[in-house]
Write a structure and sequence with these properties.
The chain is an alpha+beta fold. It is built from 19 helices and 29 strands. The chain binds a DNA duplex through strand 9, strand 12, strand 13, strand 14 and strand 26.
DNA sequence: GTTTGTTCGCGTGCCGGTCA
DNA sequence: TGACCGGCACGCGAACAAAC
């Protein structure tokens, strides 16, 4: 849809400044995907300086900048995820936001939506505008802008590259170098990433590897002593969180300590230190500390509710539990937790509401949990770890996360493919044999860290009897909702409830990242090879000594390494959880496989070799959607950029 | 001879433990 | 609560082997 001309109130400079600010404000975010970071700059470079683009474009860029924290309560969840999972989630969000931003920029540049007020000069006055304007465009005229010229810095410093060389970032001056290919002193490109090094006393000090040259240059500038730290004390709130200030802490924030040049956040829970992560800035760490407090309050509230429900008279087995909806209104941590009979005794705990209970209120005793029994309190610690895993459900459960639990668990998580689940359903075998991966026609969500082995399933001992509590976290398009599903006599039944809930949630649209649902009646005998993924044709290898099935992909421990050959040397393209991801990286680096060549050939070869090889195509929207959409979006964005006269930075084949 | 796969070793930094 | 320390997993490149 074409925005109205009255909507076009932002200048290109404002957009570019916005992107730059976003990059410096959250370098970790942009570090996630170097190409995206480069491309977003390139995208805005394509818009002629001085012209106005739509407010919609800016809003999309806002979305990009806030991608790691989008979704309110969801951000709190993401922050507490394992870093690996979080990176992936952020990368996907960033990809989506990026593609939208490019799309908007494309609209602004290609479609006649770029407007210049007739009353003022086009470039100069518009470029000088520092603040967004909401009005004065009634007489504006619509033009089709020419393709944007490259910036002066870009043209002068790095012809052929799409990103400009910044001279300043994060409050310090960067060291430029005309002899260095990256444009920055002490910064070297290595396998598509940028390594910062500093020579001290004749030794080369490693400063870190970064996704962009600017970030590496910032690290170098810091190392040589030109870093001017921001006024930490002035930042008392960020990302919607009230930060915990501390006068005794060198960083200025409670729970934040400087660890080898980075900032580590920890929090004490039940007498134990909980590691919250390492961050580039003290403010980020402080935000993680505050965020953890809120998440903890949310978990406590849910568990408190569960405890209250459990105290209701139980008259036997699951039938009674499912048939009766104990509908107590429980107040815990300042929350009203009310069961909904219409939702099969589920109670929705609105995380967005829960996180509104700030730590200060909690610690001040303004509200107090209702009789959280000691057993529940002990369970909390375990539940927190499990909840983190569970909330990370958009990433398919690690394939080998359940070592020792048998093959039933190991078949789950193969890039969303419906792998063969040999395990027999039924709770009888769950303890002795291994985790059940399917039951009642549903594929169960496994957890690598939870005490029960299932996502969203919590173990609880009640009056000497072991019970299993099921909870599920669903995103309704606006915010995260934590839903209590009930108490079940077995972990499998609880896991089925979780799978059902997730399936119902995902059936509303194709965006569900985790493929749940009835298990196919005739699963493949082995994990099939994927011929296409993320919009790329993969290189399927027919070599007999290839163990992964993909050219350029080798097994590296429990993970998969993608490597390319350049000038006879092996160049690592990264390591990945799955062979498909590594194959995608390889295809992206060297180009796609021939249209109907290697994939089919590989399939045939495998078929002939073992008689059970299979090649399937994985499109976006299925189990691989979390990553699957990334390349497709990038491809779309690249095409858009190409039409605008530029290209995404890309590895040369 | 060239291309591709495997193995190995090193450096880095994440993460948990301990102590003041 | 903050600071320090150590173990270990991971990323990466180099060297070598194997296949084409």
């Amino acid at each position: 849809m074409q925005p109205s001309t009255a909507d076009a109130v932002w200048t290109t400079e404002e957009l570019q400044r916005f992107v730059q600010e976003a990059r410096t404000a959250d370098p970790r975010h942009f570090k996630m995907d170097h190409e995206l970071a480069e491309a977003i700059t390139a995208a805005t470079d394509k818009v002629r300086p001085g012209v106005r683009v739509t407010r919609a474009a800016l809003e999309l860029l806002t979305e990009l900048a806030s991608a790691p924290t989008a979704g309110g309560a969801l951000a709190g969840v993401l922050q507490n995820l394992d870093e690996k999972h979080r990176r992936r989630a952020i990368a996907v969000e960033a990809a989506v936001a990026y593609a939208r931003a490019v799309e908007a920029a494309e609209r602004a540049a290609v479609e006649p939506v770029v407007t210049v007020p007739a009353a003022e000069p086009a470039a100069g006055a518009a470029g000088a505008a520092g603040e967004p304007r909401e009005q004065g465009l009634a007489s504006s005229q619509t033009i089709v802008p020419p393709l944007a010229p490259r910036t002066e810095a870009l043209a002068a410093s790095e012809p052929g590259r799409t990103a400009a060389v910044a001279t300043e970032a994060e409050g310090l001056r960067l060291h430029l170098s005309s002899s260095n290919s990256t444009g920055y002193r002490g910064v070297y490109e290595d396998s598509g990433r940028f390594q910062a090094q500093h020579w001290v006393d004749g030794r080369n000090a490693y400063l870190g590897t970064f996704g962009s040259a600017v970030e590496a240059a910032v690290a170098y500038a810091r190392a040589v002593g030109e870093y001017q730290p921001p006024p930490v004390a002035a930042v008392t709130a960020a990302e919607g969180f009230q930060l915990h200030m501390s006068s005794s802490n060198a960083t200025g924030y409670t729970g934040v300590s400087l660890e080898r040049g980075r900032f580590q956040a920890r929090r004490v829970v039940n007498g134990r230190q909980v590691y919250l992560g390492v961050f580039g800035t003290a403010v980020e760490a402080a935000v993680a500390y505050a965020r953890h407090g809120r998440l903890r309050a949310a978990v406590e509230a849910a568990v408190a509710y569960e405890a209250a429900v459990a105290r209701q008279p139980e008259e036997g087995e699951e039938e009674e539990e499912e048939g009766e909806a104990p509908a107590p209104v429980v107040e815990a941590e300042g929350l009203q937790l009310q069961p909904e009979a219409a939702a099969e005794e589920a109670v929705e705990v609105d995380v967005a509401v829960m996180v509104a209970v700030d730590d200060e209120e909690e610690e001040g005793g303004a509200v107090e949990a209702v009789e959280v029994v000691e057993a529940v309190a002990a369970e909390l610690e375990r539940a927190q770890g499990q909840l983190r895993d569970w909330l990370s459900a958009p990433v398919v459960a690690p394939a080998e996360s359940q070592a020792g639990h048998g093959s039933a668990a190991s078949v789950v998580g193969q890039e969303g493919m419906m792998a063969g689940a040999e395990a027999e359903g039924g709770e009888e075998g769950e303890a002795a044999v291994g985790l059940v991966t399917e039951s009642e026609g549903y594929r169960l969500h496994l957890s690598s860290t939870g005490s029960t082995g299932y996502l969203g399933v919590f173990r609880r001992e009640d009056c000497g009897r072991l019970k299993f509590v099921a909870m599920v976290s669903l995103h309704d398009g606006h915010r995260m909702r934590l839903t209590y599903l009930g108490v079940f006599p077995t972990a499998v039944k609880a896991a089925v409830a979780v799978a059902k809930a997730k399936l119902q949630s995902s059936s509303g649209g194709p965006s569900s990242a985790v493929q749940v649902g009835p298990v196919p009646t005739a699963p493949p005998r082995r994990a099939p090879l994927v011929a296409e993924a993320e919009g790329l044709r993969l290189h399927v290898s027919s070599r007999s000594n290839n163990t992964t099935g993909y050219t350029g992909v080798v097994k590296h421990g429990s993970r998969f390494k993608a490597q390319d050959r350049r000038d006879g040397k092996a160049v690592s393209l990264g390591t990945f959880d799955t062979a498909v991801e590594a194959a995608v990286a390889y295809a992206r680096a060297v180009g796609q496989a021939p249209a109907q060549g290697s994939a089919a050939a590989g399939s045939e070869a495998l078929d002939s070799d073992e008689g059970e090889g299979e090649v399937v195509a994985v499109g976006s929207g299925d189990g691989g959607a979390a990553l699957g959409g990334l390349a497709a979006l990038q491809a779309r964005a690249a095409e858009a950029l190409h039409r605008m006269g530029g290209d995404l930075p890309r590895h040369e084949p």
